[in-house]
Amino acid sequence: MLAIANKAREITGVDPRALPDDVLLSTQPLVLKGLVADWPIVRAGLQSNQSAISYIRRFYRDATVGALLGAPDIEGRFFYNEDLSGFNFKAVKLKLDVMLDEVERHKDASKPPAIYVGSTTIDTCLPGFRDENDLGFGDRNPLASIWLGNRTRIAAHHDLPDNVACVVVGHRRFTLFPPEQLQNLYIGPLDFTPAGQAISMVDFARPDLQRFPKFAEAVRHAQLAELGPGDALFIPSMWWHHIEALDAFNVLVNYWWRQSPAFMDSPISALMLAIMTVRDLPKAQRDAWFNLFRHYVFEADESTAAHIPEGARRALSPMDEDMVRDIRARLLQRLNR
């Protein structure tokens, strides 16, 4: 286990029916102690894993879920194979009740196979579950997902949305890094990933500091959050986080939302296009494009297009849905030529 000196800030007394903006707009991780302690799924899990599984089965309606299955020798760490040509697990589709049966079947094994169901929409998979177990986000409309499995380790990655992650069964350990630690986390391929997001290549259980020496600097800036049943964690957009599920059965419910309009594309599209079109230019041209990006994107303000009549600013105007649709169509036309 990594020696993390810094603990994520803990707060208590947050009303789960009306999460405040000082939590939901935080730029630092926040541990929300006991936020969902009164949820029925939490109370069932505190009785036993079997009680929690029985509670979940109440809402099951023959749903198929995506699961990751790994052999015992991966020790719960879902990752690449040796030469990064593939992965050390199988991605399968199965019925949720079959997955729960598998967890129960291996509950007493000292080295069980790794079983993981991630990011499954609750309303599709377990209709009615949120009627008894839910949070209040005001006028925000987050996507609510459930994550289930046994002892697993999910490599450090970041997500575009803000995230409230609620530990409802079992215990989890989160190791979090601010976005600027990117260069010290040794991120793997951007376009071939275990589950959609680029991940750190460092094994947090056995960090190889000869191969990854800058990781020691990342650890200096890390924050640790250790959560039990009923606790929640707010993870700001773009914060890197490594997640360990520590018990024979673990359930997490999370809520994702973006602070930008739904019509905006993911910035990863811009990054991949920039890699494709800008990265390998001669240095002088890259420098020129760096200045263009800084002027029109990263340092853009009301003065950027002030010299252009307002009705003629087009893409330099504030974005709206129609403008984004038009720009997307023209980009697709260019890319498909």
List the helices and strands and how they pair.
Layout lengths: L8 E3 L9 H4 L5 E3 L7 H8 L1 H9 L6 E7 L6 E2 L10 E7 H10 L8 E8 H4 L3 H4 L10 E7 L2 E6 L4 E8 L2 E6 L37 H6 L2 E5 L4 E4 L4 E6 L4 E8 L9 H11 L5 H16 L22 H15 L2
Parallel strand pairs: 1-2, 4-8
Antiparallel strand pairs: 2-12, 3-5, 3-6, 6-7, 7-14, 8-13, 9-12, 9-14, 10-11, 10-13
Helix pairs in contact: 2-3
Concise synopsis of the structure shown:
Helix content is 26%, strand content 24%. It is an alpha+beta fold and 337 residues long. The longest helix is centred in the C-terminal third of the chain and has 16 residues, at 283-298.
Question: What do these coordinates show?
Answer:
The protein has 337 residues and is of the alpha+beta class. It folds into 2 domains: 9-257, Jelly Rolls, CATH 2.60.120; 267-335, no CATH class. Helices cover 26% and strands 24% of the residues. The protein has helices at residues 21-24, 40-47, 49-57, 96-105, 122-125, 129-132, 215-220, 267-277, 283-298, 321-335; strands at residues 9-11, 30-32, 64-70, 77-78, 89-95, 114-121, 143-149, 152-157, 162-169, 172-177, 223-227, 232-235, 240-245, 250-257. The strands form 2 sheets. Strands 1-2-12-9-14-7-6-3-5 form a 9-stranded mixed beta sheet. Strand 1 (9-11), helix 1 (21-24) and strand 2 (30-32) form a beta-alpha-beta unit. Helix 2 runs antiparallel to helix 3 (49-57). The longest helix has 16 residues, at 283-298. The chain starts with 8 loop residues before the first strand and ends with a helix. The model has no long low-confidence stretch (mean pLDDT 96).
